[in-house]
Task: inverse folding
């Protein structure tokens, strides 16, 4: 052997030892099995110098999945995550892997396969002929040489380590021993991982059990709901039930449930499970654990398959609960259906055995619908432990319930005796309360309310009423005290002839109470029974109230929830309260009679005082109206007397102007034709200042005409304000009335020595003619504008100007509005509500009468069927807004129809 060969051999041996050391160190340093397997595949591929090394793990159904892989890029495709069917490895090959731990070396090119047991530790001495299907299988995979070693765990075939190369590859004994050592180390790592997983599962199981036990016993009384939810969660379920078998079975359902409407007639879930338990006895337990991932596969549960499928449930785990051979019930956990995806290495029919090897190993996805996760051994072990905890808690619950029943019996006896004593005390208190009410108050309603409240409390009835009987035999429920959400009977009158029949005969002469323990079985007329049922009455107690030997009414106690037997002691208690009530009623009626007489006298006095006030107000209004009428007549007379001479002057001014102009023209002609007049004429021209006369005379005539027009305008305004010819309803232009009022008040708008002028800002809309009493409406305008000017008299000098705003607008088809506002001192809020009251004024004594706004309010609201509003803000100003209809006749017609309709309803 040459030096180079020796060096190469030593190098290979060193690489193998290094590989084995790295893998061993990896196993020692890491507890992550997947990390160990990935590192093993990568390290092994590098040392062997092959295209692919994969670790293949067997599944419970004997198929296998590549869970770790190292592959040379562009040499062979990756198979990581792909699943291979069980048929790819024949059963006899699996047996050899387990029994002899054989290693197989395949050469596709030589069509040979060598097998050597791991225990013998040598290369295969004889190579057999490779099966043609096996060769075709590897060719399709692109593999020319293959090395495969089994990985065992607990004497079971856990998986395979396979080395693939696309070219021929030969393995010597040291390499084979190295790979075998690597596989042995992987087996150790798998054992360690399994132990660690088992320890973690044990820890999680104990933690889950402790948590559920703490939930079961977290409260003094056992609460199962949270514990059931925790058990369902730890077992990976989607729903569940706890069934406790006893005299009154208890079933608690949580999460997703089978559709109970789909249960076959006469069959329930617990009956089907019991049938399975009876058909499957085992010596280990009286009630074995039932687990299945498909309820349809269990004969006894198959009729319930549709009920499970309708809500997407499939798996079932039933935990029997028994304590000392006594069956207590069961805890059931359900699992939903899921869809499983399996990525196979190549397409094939999973329901049939492969007759020919696959030609392609490209990933092929199979979707399996309607599956369920199987219940693992860990789930079953945890379920058995949980069944013991739940059984213990249920036994404790049943014992606790039994003790509570005994305690409740004793407590009920004590309560009955206490109740009897309390009834005596309550009766004394009720009597005292009624007596105190009689002494402290003579109000009949308060006394009767106290009586019914005490009766209802004393009897613990649902409703207590007082049925008062009036003259003629009619009656009505006038007082009521009710407990709960029962229908109120207050104010209800009984139908004639229904209840009660011949009251005076039944209750007036004997004075005895009447008892109905059950309305449905009592001897009543159909009308009477229907009436009681309408008030939800199941039983009642009727006790009469007598006043002055007459039947005044009845105290009636109602039981609405269920029938009731009234005791003799209860009847006596109500009769005693009824006697107290009769005394109180007599006293209250005497007091009421005296009050009625007093009220009658007071009412007459109030009527006289009101009539006096109305008379005074009417007299004042008549005086004011007469003053306004006289003022209107005076204004009209003055206007008429002034109008005649003014018209004469105004009419002659036109001719005077013409004549004067003619004379001036003639004078100009003389000056043109005789430019040199005589000396006397020149002296007279100079004396009269002819040039100034010619210039000033036309201006003087124009001023006279303007003054005459102003006088005519004032006269027209006075006539328009008086409206003596318009005292009836007729269409008028509101703007004319406003302008006339402003003309009359023009002298008050002008500036004076101690105050600035009042600026009037007008915003007139295009209004139609409005049907109204023009004179009265002008009176309203006069009052509002005068008040606005008065409000501006104590004006703050710091303000820019004194302003009165007048705005008109049309509202809809048959309504107009007039708004008059000022920026004066405003009206205080506490006085604002009194501005329309008669004789109320904010002006100093002797300045105002307090009737202007009151009369204006009546004119707008009563005469014109409108509305009158006042808005004011102190320091900002005041606004009055009136609205009246355009057509008064249509408004009166509408009011007449409304009045007729209201009368018809009454």
Result:
């Amino acid at each position: 052997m040459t030096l180079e060969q020796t060096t190469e051999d030593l190098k290979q041996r060193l690489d193998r030892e290094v590989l084995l050391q790295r893998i061993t160190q990896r196993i020692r340093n890491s507890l992550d099995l997947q990390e160990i397997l990935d590192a093993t595949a990568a390290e092994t591929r590098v040392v062997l110098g092959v295209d692919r090394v994969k670790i293949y793990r067997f599944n419970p159904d004997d198929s296998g999945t590549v869970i770790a892989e190292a592959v040379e890029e562009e040499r062979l495709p990756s198979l990581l995550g792909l699943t291979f069917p069980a048929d790819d490895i024949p059963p006899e090959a699996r047996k050899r892997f387990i029994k002899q731990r054989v290693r197989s070396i395949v050469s596709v090119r030589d069509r040979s396969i060598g097998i050597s047991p791991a225990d013998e530790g040598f290369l295969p001495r004889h190579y057999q002929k490779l099966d043609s299907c096996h060769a075709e299988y590897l060719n399709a995979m692109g593999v020319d040489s293959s090395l495969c070693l089994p990985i065992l765990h607990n004497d079971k075939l856990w998986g395979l380590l396979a080395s693939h190369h696309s070219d021929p590859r030969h393995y010597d004994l040291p390499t084979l021993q190295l790979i075998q050592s690597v596989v042995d180390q992987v087996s150790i790592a798998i054992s360690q991982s399994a132990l660690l997983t088992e320890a973690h599962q044990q820890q999680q199981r104990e933690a889950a059990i402790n948590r559920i036990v703490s939930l079961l016993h977290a409260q003094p009384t056992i609460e199962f709901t949270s514990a059931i939810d925790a058990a369902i969660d730890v077992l990976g379920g989607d729903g569940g039930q706890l069934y406790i078998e006893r005299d009154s079975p208890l079933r608690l359902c949580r999460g997703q449930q089978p559709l109970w409407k789909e249960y076959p007639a006469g069959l329930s879930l617990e009956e089907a499970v019991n049938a399975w338990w009876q058909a499957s006895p085992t010596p280990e337990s009286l009630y074995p654990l039932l687990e299945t991932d498909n309820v349809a596969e269990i004969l006894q549960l198959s009729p319930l398959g549709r009920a499970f499928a309708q809500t997407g449930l499939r798996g079932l785990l039933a935990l029997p609960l028994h304590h000392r051979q006594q069956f207590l019930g069961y805890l059931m956990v359900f699992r939903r259906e899921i869809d499983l995806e399996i990525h196979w290495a190549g397409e094939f029919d999973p329901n049939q055995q492969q007759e020919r090897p696959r030609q392609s190993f490209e990933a092929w996805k199979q979707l399996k619908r309607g599956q369920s996760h199987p219940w693992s051994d860990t789930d079953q072990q945890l379920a058995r432990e949980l069944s013991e905890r739940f059984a213990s808690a249920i036994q404790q619950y049943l014992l606790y319930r039994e003790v509570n029943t005994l305690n409740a019996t004793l407590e009920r006896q004590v309560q009955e005796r206490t109740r009897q004593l309390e009834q005596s005390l309550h009766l004394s208190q009720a009597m005292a309360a009624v007596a105190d009410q009689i002494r402290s108050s003579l109000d009949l309603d308060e006394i009767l309310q106290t009586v019914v409240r005490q009766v209802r409390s004393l009897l613990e009835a649902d409703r207590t009423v007082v049925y008062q009987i009036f003259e003629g035999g009619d009656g009505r429920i006038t007082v009521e005290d009710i407990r709960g959400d029962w229908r109120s009977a207050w104010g209800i009158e009984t139908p004639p002839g229904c209840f009660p029949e011949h009251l005076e005969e039944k209750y007036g002469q004997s004075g005895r109470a009447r008892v109905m323990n059950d309305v449905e079985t009592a001897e009543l007329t159909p009308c009477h029974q229907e009436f009681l049922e309408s008030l939800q009455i199941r039983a009642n107690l009727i006790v009469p109230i007598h006043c002055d030997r007459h039947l005044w009414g009845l105290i009636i106690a109602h039981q609405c929830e269920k029938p009731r037997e009234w005791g003799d002691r209860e009847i006596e208690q109500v009769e005693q309260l009824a006697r107290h009530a009769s005394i109180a009623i007599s006293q209250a009626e005497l007091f009421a009679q005296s009050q009625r007489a007093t009220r009658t006298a007071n009412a007459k006095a109030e009527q006289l005082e009101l009539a006096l006030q109305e008379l005074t107000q009417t007299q004042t209004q008549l005086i004011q109206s007469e003053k306004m009428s006289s003022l209107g007549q005076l204004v009209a007379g003055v206007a008429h007397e002034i109008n005649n001479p003014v018209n004469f002057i105004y009419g002659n001014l036109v001719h005077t102007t013409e004549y004067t102009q003619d004379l001036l023209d003639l004078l100009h002609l003389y000056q043109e034709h005789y430019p040199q007049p005589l000396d006397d004429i020149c002296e007279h021209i100079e004396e009269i200042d002819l040039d100034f006369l010619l210039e000033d005379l036309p201006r003087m005539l124009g001023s006279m005409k303007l003054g005459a027009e102003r006088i005519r305008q004032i006269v027209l305004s006075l006539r328009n304000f008086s409206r003596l010819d318009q005292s009836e309803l007729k269409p008028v232009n509101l703007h004319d009335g406003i302008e006339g009022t402003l003309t009359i008040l023009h002298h008050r708008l002008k500036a004076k020595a101690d105050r600035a002028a009042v600026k009037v800002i007008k915003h007139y809309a295009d209004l139609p003619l409005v049907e109204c009493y023009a004179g009265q409406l002008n009176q309203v305008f006069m009052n509002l504008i005068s008040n606005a000017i008065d409000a501006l008299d104590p004006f703050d000098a710091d303000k820019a100007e004194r302003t009165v705003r007048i705005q008109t607008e049309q509202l809809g088809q048959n309504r107009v509005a007039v708004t008059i506002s000022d920026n004066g001192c405003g009206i205080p809020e506490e006085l604002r509500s009194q501005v329309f009251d008669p004789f109320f004024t904010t002006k100093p004594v002797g300045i105002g009468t307090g009737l202007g706004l009151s009369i204006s309010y009546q004119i707008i609201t009563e005469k014109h069927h409108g509305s009158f509003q006042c808005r004011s803000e102190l320091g900002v100003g005041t606004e009055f807004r009136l609205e009246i209809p355009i057509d008064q006749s249509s408004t009166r017609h509408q009011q007449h129809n409304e009045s007729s309709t209201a009368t018809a309803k009454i």
User: Anything to note?
Assistant: The CA atoms of residues 711 and 794 lie 31 Å apart.
